[in-house]
Design brief:
With about 350 residues, this protein is an alpha/beta fold. Helices cover about 20% and strands about 20% of the residues. The protein contains six helices and 14 strands. The strands form three sheets. The chain has a six-stranded mixed beta sheet, sandwiched between helices. The protein has a five-stranded mixed beta sheet with strand order 3-1-8-5-6. Strand 5 (about 95) and strand 6 form a beta hairpin. The longest helix is centred in the C-terminal third of the chain and has 16 residues, at about 320-335. It binds guanosine-5'-triphosphate and magnesium ion. Guanosine-5'-triphosphate binds near residues 171, 185, 192 and 313.
């Protein structure tokens, strides 16, 4: 069973109460207050673990509670802390509160930690409230309340392939043609505001996951456009498809665009810049006789030693060849025959 979405109820532990107690010993008349504080209640953390690959555990354990803190005791003894609970989730999990859209945390790497519900604080005992004017306080605090929240955990597919490029070059059009993903497509920059994922079937037995991320522009690392934060979604991909608009109407310089995008990626994470890359020149249906831009990009790919494809995402031209090349490269990467 492949569970991709589960609801979990997480409840932290209540804090232990502070204690009211006075020292009573022979020969120590009117011993002072010595009530200890309660222990903090346990919190619940989610932690990503690469050895786990589904959310099935939560289907059988939808309710998880952390321990409460023990009450404080006389003799200034602090109550025992409630143990924290660490629940392991697969890399690629996102967490939301039930009925809310906002993503609270996106586990992209192993070992990431998210505090889901915090334990109640231990209450202070009467020893704490002693002062020069108040030698025998009878007050203490109750432990902090527990927190209970309903969360939705969702396991996202991790993309094998990332599509990068300037805004409006046709990244979303490409993913919509080769997978079942239905992203927004429009003739203006920054149509894609969040990454889209799609599964591409190569043949009956093979498929790969491809991600379409918002376009990059010069200064993205300084926050221009939508910035480079979405690049983290291609951090774990194995291949990048660098899409370049070669249409004569784009008013862009394809070679310049290529270098700008690479520079922004380099700043974000130089490892991504070194990733296996395939160059795809898009919108070839608009070329007519004006093939200069296409030729320039083909030349660039040759100089860099990168595989090159001329496609029209809109018309579906050249896509099958691109899909096969991606699939073939993924195989070679797996067998470590290319890097
Ligand atoms: N003629 C032609 N138009 C295309 C082609 N591919 C995409 N387009 C058009 O280009 C425009 C932008 O396409 P999108 O797929 O939204 O581009 P994007 O790269 O995802 O853009 P952002 O999300 O803004 O970064 C749309 O009007 C598409 O219809 C193509 O192969 N040929
Ligand atoms: Mg888009």
């Amino acid at each position: 069973m492949f569970v991709d979405q589960v609801k979990v109820i997480l409840r932290s532990g209540k804090g232990g109460n502070g204690c009211v107690s006075f020292r009573r010993e022979k020969r120590v008349p009117r011993g002072g207050p010595n009530g200890g504080r309660g222990g903090d209640g346990g919190s619940i953390y989610l932690i990503s673990d690469q050895n786990i690959n589904s959310l099935v555990y939560f289907r059988f354990h939808p309710i998880n509670k952390a321990k409460r803190g023990a009450h404080g005791e006389g003799g200034n003894r602090q109550g025992k802390r409630g143990e924290d609970l660490y629940l392991r989730v697969p890399v690629g999990t996102i967490i939301r509160e039930e009925d809310k859209e906002e993503i609270l945390f996106d586990f992209l790497q192993p070992g990431e930690e998210f505090l889901a519900v915090k334990g109640g604080k231990g209450g202070r005992g009467n020893a704490f409230f002693k002062s020069s004017t108040h030698q025998a306080p009878r007050s203490s605090e109750e432990g902090g309340e527990e927190t209970e929240k309903d969360f939705i955990l969702e396991l996202k597919l991790i993309a094998d392939v990332g599509i990068i490029g300037f805004p409006n070059v046709g990244k979303s059009t490409l993913i919509s043609k080769i997978s079942a993903a239905k992203p927004a497509i429009a003739d203006y920059p920054f149509t894609t505001l969040i990454p889209n994922l799609g599964v591409v079937d190569v043949d009956e037995f093979k498929s790969f996951v491809i991600a379409d991320i918002p376009g990059l522009i010069e200064g993205a690392h300084l926050g221009h456009g939508l910035g480079i934060k979405f690049l983290k979604h291609v951090e774990r991909t194995k291949i990048l498809v660098h899409l370049i608009d070669v249409s004569p109407y784009s008013e862009r310089e394809p070679i310049e665009d290529f270098h700008t995008v690479m520079k922004e990626i380099e700043v974000f994470n130089s490892q991504i810049a070194k990733r296996y890359q395939i160059i795809a020149a898009n919108k070839t249906d608009l070329l007519g006789k004006k093939k200069e831009r296409l030729d320039e990009v083909r030349e660039l790919a040759k100089k860099k030693g990168l595989p090159f494809f001329a496609i029209s995402a809109l018309k579906g031209e050249g896509l099958q060849e691109l899909i096969y090349a991606i699939s073939e490269t993924l195989n070679l990467l797996k067998e470590k025959k290319v890097s």
